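Protocol step 4 of 6: structure prediction from sequence.
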Amino acid sequence: MLNITDDKLIYFQQISKKDIKIAEQYGLQYYGSGKNIGIGAAYRFLAERARHPYILYLQNDFQLIHDVNNNPSELTDGIELLSQHEIDVVLYRSRSRPGEPNWATDNVRGNEERWQSHLFNSLYWMENPEQAYPDKILRNAAKPNFLQTTARYMNYTDNPALYRRDWLLETLGDYFTANDPHDITWPERVIQPWWETQGFRIAQAEGLFEHIRLDRGGWQRRLIMWPVPLLKATGLYDRVRTMPLVQSLKAKL
């Protein structure tokens, strides 16, 4: 991934000497703060310093699982959709391997009527969601491997996404720094109520990145997530997932 661009920026929350060493090892232009300024503020900071017209955000818990050096078509197709102003946001979390946890799968699946504002997430568990929701989801005419919808049916997410840099700063810049005073790490809480009233166009193909923490979790997190389908089938999922013990285990994993 690092071979396909000459503008590689990274922001470290609570930056350390180890962080700087890693950035220098991989040729990354690094920035950071002694405290956690929040995801949104870091996103804006990086966008203001990026040199190219398109920006792809990646957090440290997403891993590239496709070979973009030999097959960059999904990235180049996404850039083309943005450049022609057909699409405003291109999402890149993998459909086949979205990783855990996946909030949409845990909460929206089976409750689609309740979560109309998150309906586009059905692409994670439906092969052809445009057939189930033809008035809300469609295939892009120019790039039929991409599904598309509007912000009314796809929540704002800080998962891997490609933007036009100028559009991003003009549209979301102020929201990124209007942090929730109760939890600065989640820009979704600030953005979503406004986002779902907008007509922004959002697209996704197969996706390139899996949600997985490389510094913790692994088999332990998969073990704790294993009973989820059974709990959902028995109607106990919502009750169990809110138990303090379960929340504490998930946080540690």
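Step 5 (inspection) to follow. Strands lie at 9-12, 29-32, 54-57, 62-64, 89-93, 138-139, 147-150, 161-164, 201-211.
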